[in-house]
Amino acid sequence: MPVPPEQGMKKELKRQQYLDLYYYMRLNRAVEDMMVKLFRQNKIVGGLYSSLGQEAISVGTAYALEKKDWLAPMIRNIGALLVKGVRPRDIFMQHMAKYDSPTKGKDGTSHFGDLDDLHIVSPISMLGDLIPVMTGVAMAGRYLGQKIVTMTWIGDGGSSTGVFHEGLNFAATQKAPFVLILENNLWAYSTPVRKQVPLENLADRAKAYGIDSYIVDGNDVVAVYSVAKEAVDRARAGEGPILIEAKSFRRMGHAQHDPAEYVPKEMRAYWEARDPIALYERFLSSEKLLDAKSKKEVEEKIDSLLAAEREFAENSPMPPPELAETGVYCTGDDCHKIRAKWERPIAEVTPPRSSVKAVWTVPGFGSGKASDGANAPIHFGDTHASQHRVGNDTKSANGGKPAAKMAAKAAPKKTVKTAGASRKARR
Ligand SMILES: Cc1ncc(C[n+]2csc(CCOP(=O)(O)OP(=O)(O)O)c2C)c(N)n1
Ligand SMILES: [Mg+2]
What's CA 414's distance to the chain center, in Å? Predict the structure, then answer.
């Protein structure tokens, strides 16, 4: 069983930030608890997923984003939606397929977004597809001069899809201001991570694309936020995409239908004892940031908010049948208009200033072994003729030095950083 990194990492936050993280984790859990009740009353349409035990990841990462930034949630990221400003009533109504829901009852779960105000791209169920999509959003933001960062999440299982690798490679080559959170919760349906991937750390996936990565204890919200903030700042500064592996555990089954009896009891017990909210409460009270009275105030605030939100959702009607014919395709009239929000002079990116010479020079592709064992220089037609291999006589631009050494010299230095639980949060 992997043990989360022990190395401490801590960032001093403002008192209000500590309390916000607590509020959103509690709200995340309360919203999902309420939806379990609605599900058992047969009021939820479709499946219901849980992020129990993973709230610190959704909340800590989304809290690192600015208002102008964009995110696209996956099924276990209701916490991120709440941090971004989605109202609980919208989450309830969406799951209940009500007429007042963001998709007017036409879709369920978290399949909704808000392109105008909250900057949320609606997810679909295909695992990994949000990676190239959010890379594209990041590139569009850069083109328009918006200085935004984009973020999405992927599971351990989803990190084995083809589009994960295509998308991350694309993001890396484009140096997109994009942060990808890999939630390693040890299971994909009933398949343990060790049967899916021959790696101890899924953060190592980043090495293949020459980008930086972090590993963080996904049950420590301060550590998660600290690492996410650093990654978001670096992406915004133009350093390119960053992968964060957050190690945690899926405490419920894949969805409500799955009792997850295949999970070993000791594994469950280990992680239940590391509940992210309980850990954080201990930290907050040891830091004198939360006492019994303020904790009760948070609970009461959430209880009364959710009672009102639930009532609103329950009173919303189901969609009328004739609605099924409308809004199937975006026509720009009954749906929404997509307008580019320029935050730089368009002249900067249009000809003649955007014109570049159509010449592509690729230095340093090194050389490879030919079938006779000799080094064959690899070139793309833009290298000097003397580098071409003629007969058995091998000449190379590096003056006969071993190619591997040359390549190693040219390779950019990349590191994988490890960020563990904040020492204080572990008390
Ligand atoms: C491309 C694709 N393949 C398969 C599925 C079906 N599917 C949905 S969730 C899931 C398991 C995902 O596991 P993981 O990525 O670890 O996320 P977790 O459920 O643990 O959060 C699968 C296989 C899908 N939605 N998309
Ligand atoms: Mg998983």
Answer: 21
**DSSP code of 120?**
B
Compute the distance from residue 99 Cα to the ligand 1 centre, in Å.
28
Residue 186 DSSP label: S
Instruction: Please tell me the number of the ligand nearest to residue 51's CA.
Output: 1
CA distances from 354 to 73, 136, 152, 350 (A): 34, 19, 30, 5
What is the torsional sign of CA 376, 382, 386, 388? Answer: positive
Residue of minimum CA distance from atom 17 in ligand 1: 155
Non-local (6+) Cβ contacts of 269 within 8 A are: none
Cβ-proximal residues to 42 (8 Å cutoff; 6+ apart), any chain: none
Q: Is 147 exposed, middle or buried (0-12, 13-18, 19+ CB in 10 A)?
A: middle
HSE-CB at 90 with a 13 A cutoff on CA atoms is: 14
Other CB atoms within a 10 A radius of the CB of residue 367 amount to: 22
**Domains of the chain and any CATH numbers:** 15-341+416-426 (3.40.50.970)
Cβ of 161 below 6 Å from ligand 1: yes
126: Cβ below 6 Å to ligand 1?
yes
pLDDT, residue 356, reads 74
- How remote is the CA of residue 198 from the centroid of ligand 1, in Å? 18
Q: Compute the distance from residue 330 Cα to the ligand 2 centre, in Å.
A: 33
Residue range 254-267, pLDDT digits in tens: 999 999 999 999 99
Q: Is 127 in the pocket of ligand 1 (CB under 6 A)?
A: yes
Q: Which residues pair with 390 in a beta bridge?
A: 393
Contact 263, 187 (CB under 8 A): yes
pTM, two decimal places: 0.85
Tell me the CA–centroid distance for residue 43 and ligand 1, in Å.
24
Low-confidence residues of the chain: pLDDT under 70: 1-11, 333-335, 358-369, 376-427
